[in-house]
Each structure stands twice: as C-alpha cells, then as structure tokens.
Specification:
21% strand, 4 helices, alpha/beta, 5 strands, Rossmann fold
Length: 101
C-alpha cells in the first residue's frame, strides 16, 4: 500500500488518479472532512483525516503501508518539523520507500 499525504493538493490531485489507474492500493491523507469527500469521490476508499502535526494522525497514516509519497504543509511555520516527524513515524511502521517532496 502507498500513502499519499496532501492527497487533495496540487501534486496529490495529479498523482492519486494515476496510482488508482495502475491498480495500487492507496491511502490518502487529507486535513479536513471536506477534502476527504473529494478524494473518496476520486475513488480512494482508505482515507486518514487530520493534521500531520498530530503524532496519532501520522501513526494512522503510516500503519500498514510500504511506501509513502509525502507532501508537507508548505509555508507553514512547522513545515520542517512536520516532515521530519513523518520520516520518524515511517520507520517503526515498516515503510520501505519514502518520497519526500
């Protein structure tokens, strides 16, 4: 399984349909229920909703995935820390491949 963070963002909106078309089992991570509805309408059935600054949200997003396509919260004060926390959450979850965008 692959998790795509910011699945509703500029990169995610392009990547998610391509991954779904290729038959990959996909988990989308979005910040709000509004965006959850949008990614579900695009065909994603596994969605984690929440703030990536929350360690519990990160743990849910990483649980059971082998690959991560990480897009951080651009221009946010904690952008760097959030990205590093995502890397730290991926390792104990058994993630094998991490793309950090």
């Amino acid at each position: 399984m692959i998790v795509v963070t910011a699945a509703n963002g500029n990169q995610g909106r392009l990547l998610v349909p391509k991954l779904l078309q290729s038959g990959v089992h996909l988990r989308a991570c979005v910040r709000s229920e509004e965006w959850e509805a949008a990614v579900r309408a695009a065909g994603v059935d596994d969605v984690v909703v929440g703030d990536l600054n929350d360690s519990e949200v990160l743990a849910r997003a990483m649980n059971g995935v082998a690959q991560v396509y990480y897009v951080g919260p651009a221009l946010q004060p904690a952008e760097r820390e959030t990205g590093l926390a995502a890397v730290d959450a991926a390792a104990p979850a058994g993630v094998k491949h991490f793309v950090f965008s």
